[in-house]
Amino acid sequence: MILANLTTADLTERLTSRAGLALGIGPFHLRLTSDVAAITPLLQQLYRHYPLTDQVIRDFHLHLSGSALHRRWLRPQVQLLVDGRAPFEPLPAAHHLPALEWGMNWCIALRCNHLLMLHAAVVARGEHAIVLPAWPGHGKSTLCAALIHSGWRLLSDEFGLVRPADGALLPLPRLIPIKNAAVTALQTFAPSAEFGPTFYATRKGDLAHLCPPGESIAQSDQIARPRWLIFPRWQAGAALNLQPVSPTQAFLRVATNAFNYETLGGSAFTLVTEMVRSCNCYSLTYSALPAAVAALETLT
Amino acid sequence: MLLNALRQPHGLPKLSLEDWDLLLRVARRSRLLGRIAADLSQQNLLDQLPPSVVNHLQAAQQLVSHRQTVLSWELNRLRWALADLNPPLILLKGIAYHHAQLPPARGRNFVDVDLLVPPAWIAPVEQRLLERGWVQPKLSRYDDHYYRAWMHEIPPLRHRERDNEVDLHHNIVPLTTRQPPEAALLLSNSVAVADLSAEAPPLPVRILAPTDMVLHSLAHLWFDAQPDEGLRLRDLVDAADLMRYFGHEAEFWTQLPQRAVALHLERPLFYGLRYAQRLLYLSAPAATCRAVAKFAPSYPVLRVMDILVPLALMPEHPDFPRHRAALARWLLYIRAHWLRMPPLLTLRHLLYKSWARLVQQVKPKTPV
C-alpha cells in the first residue's frame, strides 16, 4: 500500500494521531506526525508513491510543529522536532516542506554511520549505476533529475549510500530540491517532470521539489553496483567536455566529498578504492542538459 | 527500561521491537546509545538483535570510536606543543577515561578534550597554544570576564585546522562556588598514566586520584544541570562505573568520604552515592554509607530531592513530555546555578544575559 491509497481524511488522521504516518524511504523507516495542515496536500502530491510501512522500529521520528497561539499572527513559524527536540531554529511557516526535508537530511547524516555516505547523486539502469559526486552548486541534482527523465532509475540525489559489507549502492529515492533557474531548464528538457510549489528565500535560495518517479520508489529494495563515476560541473555557456579522470584523482574526489569518510576510517578507504576500481571515471563539464544526457548515453 | 538496559545488557536480546524503538530514542537522547552498543558487542550479543537495531548500534559505535581517535590525536598534538614547557598536565573526564582505559570509556562519546593545569600554569599554557595554531573564539568582554573571573576554565580553544574543542581548567568547579576545592590538593594527589605506545609524546600526562575522579564526575552532575537536558544520567553512569572499578580496593571506600570533606564536595557525594545505589544498583560498603550519610541535607530537602532528581535524571518519553519533569529540570538548574554563584552575582549574570538576548532579538536578523 502506498500513500496515494489513503484518503485525505485518512492521511490527516494518521498525521495527527499518536501512531503517526509511517513511510518506507529507501532503507529507512520514517514516522511523521504534524500539526501543520498545509503539509498534507504536499505529501499527497510529492510523497504519494512512498510505501506505508508497518515496521515497528522506525529510524526517524519526526514531528512538524506549527506555531504556538501567540505566534500565529506575528511571524508564524514552523519547527521540526526529531525525537521531541529541535535540531535547528524554527523557519518561517511557509517553509514547512524544506524544514521536513532538511530534518530528514540531518537525521541521515548524523545517524547512519553504519553506511558510507557519499555526497553524490546515483542513477542506475538495471544493476549498473552512475555515481555523480559533486560539490553543492555543481549541477549534480539537476543532471540527476534530467537522467531520471531519460530512462534512468533514481537511487539518490544527495546521499549515495554504500553498504560496507559488499560495496552495494542502496537506493534512497527522495524529493529532489531544484534551484529556481534550473527548474525552467528541466521543464523544457522534460515536460513531464513534476514539481511542488516554489519556496522563496529559503537558506538555499528559491527552490522547488521534484517528485521522485514511482517506479524508482517501487524498486527501492533493488541494490545497484557502481559502474561509472562522473564528476559533473555545470558552467554557464560552457561547451560539453567529457574527460577521463585518473583513478587516483577519482579516489580523492570521492573521499574528500563524502559525508562520513573519516568516521568510517579504514573501511571507507577500502570501499572507495573498490568503487574506483570497478568504475570508468570521467569529469563532465556542461551547460545544456540534452547534450550532457546524450554524452552519458553514448558513454554507457 | 533505559536503566534496565544499563544494569543488565544481557537481557536486551529479549526486548520487544516496540521497546527497542523507544529505547533507541531515549538512549540516544541520554548520550548512552554508544554505551549500550559497547556492552552488547562486548558480550557478543549483537547478532541476536533485530538487524534494524544493530544498524543504529553500529552507527553509534562507529561515531564513538571515531571521536575517540580524533580526540586522542588532539591530545597527542597538545602534548607535543607543550612538551618543552613541561607543565603538569592532568586529563579530565572522557579523555582521562579513554587514555587510562577505565570502564566508563566504553562506548562513551566525548566532544572535547578537558585538561587541568595548576592555576599559575594557565597563562603560559594558553599563550603557547595560541602560538601553535589553537585559536579562541571572539567573545564579548563580558563573556571573557565570566570565564576568567568566575569559572573553572578559560574560554575554549580550538585548533585552526582540526576544530576540536580543548577546555583548559584550573579547577573542577567554578570559583564562585561557596567553597571551591583547592586546586593544589587535586594536583598533589594526581597519578601518572603510563603510555601504551612507544611513540608517545615526551610530555607525560596524569589523571586525578580515583576518589577525586569520582568526586569530579559527581560535581559535574550536580553543578552542570541544564534547563532542557536536566541532570546528565551519563555523569551518574560514569561515577557508578568508576566506584565499581576502584571499589575493588577497600581503601578507596574509606578514602572517598574523607576526600569529599577535604574537597568540600560532601553533598555531591551524598546524592551521587544515593542515586547510584537506587537507580544503578551500585553496592557500597556499609561503613562508607554511614560516613556519607552524615553529609545528608535536612529531611524535608531530601524528600524533595528524591522526587526531583529521578524526574530530572531520567529521559522522558520523547512524544509525551511531562510538565512536572520540566519543572524538576528547571528547579535543579536553578539549584545548580545557586551552588555555583552567590545569589547577587547570579542575578547580575541573568540580568545581563537577558539584556544581551533582548538586544540580539531587536537587531535585524538575516533570514536563515
Automatic annotation (TrEMBL), chain A:
Keywords: Kinase, Transferase. The keyword Transferase applies. GO terms for molecular function: kinase activity. It comes from the Bacteria. The keyword Transferase applies. SUPFAM superfamilies: PEP carboxykinase-like. This is HprK-related kinase A.
